[in-house]
Amino acid sequence: HIRTVEQLLAYCEVDLDLWEVTSAKVNKWEVGAKDDNNDICVTPLFQVKVTLGKRKGVELARGIIKKLLKQLEGKAPKIRATKRSGKTLGVIAIADPHFGKLGWRREVGESYDLDIATEMYLSACADLLKQLKPHKPERLLFEVLGDHLHTDGIVNATTNGTPQDCDGRFQKAFTQSIEAMNRAIEMCAKEYLVDVEIIPGNHDRAKLFMAGECVRAYWRNHRAVKVNNAI
User: Fold this and answer.
1) CA distance 181 to 220
2) How far is CA 202 from the centre of its chain?
3) How confident is the model at residue 230 (pLDDT cuts 50, 70, 90)?
4) Of 16, 157, 173, 228, whose CB neighbour count within 10 A is largest?
5) Does the predicted model carry a pTM greater than 0.85?
6) 190 pLDDT more than 80
7) 165-180 burial, b for 16+ CB within 10 Å, e for fewer?
8) How confident is the model over 102-110, as a mean pLDDT?
9) CA-based torsion, 210, 207, 222, 86: positive or negative
């Protein structure tokens, strides 16, 4: 009764996030047989055959995410933020840190790599917290804005496939970007109740969502921090 590739994939419950069709064969023929009245009845028969291959990088990426989530769940530091009664919302928004980007000073005027990105990111967070303090905000909105990561997927390219110069393998940039986010959020949570918003950009639409899930798992049981990774 299966006549199409789509019907076969659904019947076999193929996970299309992990597998893709590399080839397919569909054909049809007919057979004739006499019924009880000696009349010839023609029955159409169908064959649908597909060959599947694992999508490149998916299994590796899934393994990394699964391992990170297991490591991070329930590991958030024990911090008791002071509940404040001000009328101001503090906002910390650090855009375009591009974790994983590689810049050579002689070519672009200033060097840039993962360690420099981490140092600048945490320094910016500390400076913004210092500037917010006199305003006595009741709570903080911490924005993880677009292009937190320099590339998407497992190749050195943006979400749309534009090639990029990168500092090391994507696994290194991915994990270091998460560590930087968590360290910055921890700085904020020592003083305030914190709402975290994860907002991807054109460089990191898929990868930042996965990083956001790791951050959400890290802080999931923490009373002072709420992470929204639904965008």
Assistant:
1) 15
2) 13
3) confident
4) 173
5) no
6) yes
7) ebbeebeebbbbbbeb
8) 91
9) negative
Nearest-angstrom CA–CA distance, 153 and 158: 8
- CA-CA distance, 231 to 224, in Å (whole number)? 21
Distance from chain centroid for Cα 108 = 29
Residue with tokens 């496939």: 161
* Cα 136 from Cα 177, distance rounded (Å): 29
pLDDT digits (tens, 9 = 90+) for 21-75: 999 999 999 998 888 888 888 889 999 999 999 877 666 666 667 776 676 665 6
Distances (CA, A) of 133 to 67, 71, 144, 169, 191: 37, 33, 20, 38, 9
| Residue 16, pLDDT score | 82
CA angle 126, 80, 131 (to 5 degrees): 25
Rounded CA gap, 143 and 188, in Å? 12
Tokens 């694992």, located at residue: 54
Interatomic CA distance for residues 60 and 78, integer angstroms: 32
How many other CB atoms are there within 10 angstroms of residue 152's CB atom?
26
Q: Which residues pair with 94 in a beta bridge?
A: 144
Please state the separation of Cα 31 from the chain's center in Å: 52
Lowest mean pLDDT among 67-81, 98-112, 134-148: 67-81
